[in-house]
Amino acid sequence: MTNIFARDALTANGWRSNVRLSIADGRITRLADAVRPEAGDDVVDTLLPGVANLHSHAFQRGMAGLAEVRGDRADSFWTWREQMYRFALGLGPDAAESVAAQLFVEMLEAGFTRVGEFHYLHHAPDGRPYDDVAEMAGRIAAAAAATGIGLTLLPTFYAHATFGGADPIDGQRRFVTSPDGFARLVEASRRHVGALDGALDGAVVGIAPHSLRAVTPEELALILPIAGDGPIHMHAAEQTKEVDDCLAWSGMRPVEWLLAHQPLDRRWCLIHATHMTEDETLALAKRGAIAGLCPITEANLGDGIFNGATFLGAGGRFGIGSDSNILIGVGDELRQLEHGQRLRQRARNVLAEAGGSTGETLLRGAVQGGAQALTPGAAAGICDGASADLVALDMAHPAFAGRRRSAAVDAWIFAAHGGVRDVWSRGRHVVRGGHHIGREAIAARFRTEMDRFIAA
Ligand code: NGQ
Ligand code: ZN
Hints:
binds N-carbamimidoyl-L-glutamic acid; 14 helices; 21% strand; TIM Barrel; binds zinc ion; alpha/beta; five-stranded parallel sheet; eight-stranded mixed sheet
C-alpha cells in the first residue's frame, strides 16, 4: 500500500488541493482532498495523470538521428523508409530488446506511463518465423516488464507493398504473415504477455492492420475478429502519395474508404490521419475513433499538419504517440502539435477552449484519448478505481518559478526541457528524482548492443 500526498493534483474532475491518494494493487483505491499528509506518505507538489503513448515502433529508437544526412536524391518519407527497412533487417532479438528497454526508460522519465507498441518486426532476418513465432513480441513484453511501463501490444498484420494486394518487397520480409499465421502470432503474443502477468498487470493485446497499403479489404475482414474486444489501430493518410495511390486504387481517399467500410467507433485508432478533407475530418470526429497524432515524427518525416482546429472543434478525440521515436517527450509532442497549428493558422492558442490553458487542454485530451486507444473501458486520469499512473513535476525547476496548476502545465509543455521528478506506473514508483530506477544498467546494455550492431 502506497499513499501519495500532493499539494495540487489535476484529477479527472479538475484541480484539487491537498490531495491524498491511496494505492493498492496498482489502482487508486481512495482519493481525498482538503486533507493533511500522514506519516509515510510520498509527498509531492504538482501531480498529473500519466500519459499513454499510443503509437510506437520501438526498434526505430535504435536509428534515431541516423537518417538526418541528405542523400543524392530528394529525401522524403519514402527514402527514410528505405533506410529504416535496412536498419530493421539486421536487428536481432537481444538488440531489439535492449533498444525497447532503453526507449521505455526514456518514455517513463518523460511522463509516459503506458506504450502502445505497434509491432511488426516479427520474423528472423532471413524472413523465416522464429521457432517461437512471437519471439520478438516476447522481447517487447520483457522490456516493458523490466522497466515497469504499462503495455498495450498491437501485433501488426502486414502483407503487401502497396494498394491492391501487390507482393511485398524483400525489405518487408520480417513483417509478412498470412491471416492464419497472424492468428497464431496474436495467440502466442497473448501467451507471452500472460506469462509476465505479475510484472505486466493491466497489459492489453489488440491488433494493428498496418495500413490500407499493406492489407487488402478481404484480409482486413479476416483479421478483425482476432482483436476480440481489444483495440484496433491502423495507419491512415500520413503522406499525400498514399492518398493519391488510394484514390487510384479505389476512387476514395484512405479515411473516406475506412469511413465507408468500417465503423471507426471508439475501438478504433487511426494513426496520423494527416490528410483529410473537411468532410472526412468532421465524420471521423463524429464516429468517436481516436486520431493518433505523432507530431514530432510527422514533422521529422515531412508528413504534413493535421487539421486540429476543425477536428477538436467538432468534438474529435485525439491521443499522442512517438511513432519513430526520434525524440521522446510528452511536452515536446504536445508543443509540436500546438505549434504546428499556429504555423498553419498564423494564430496563437489554437487548440484551447476560450479562457482555457492550452497546455492543460492538450494534456487532458491526450490522457483521455490515450486511455480510450490503449485501455478501452478503463477509467482515465486521476480518479477512484483508475490505474495509478502518475507524474509529479519537479517544481524546483526554474521553469516553474511562481507557477502553479495550469500555469505549471503550460510551463512544462511550452517552456521547459524535462520537468518530471517522479513517475508511478500502475502504482510502481519507477522514476525518482528524474531518473528511472534501472536507468544505468539498461543504458549500459543498450550501448553495448548498439556499438556491436552499428560496427557490424
Ligand atoms: C512504420 N512508419 O510502420 O514504421 C511506417 C513505415 C511502412 C510510418 N508510417 C513502414 N511513419 O509504411 O511500411
Ligand atoms: Zn507508425
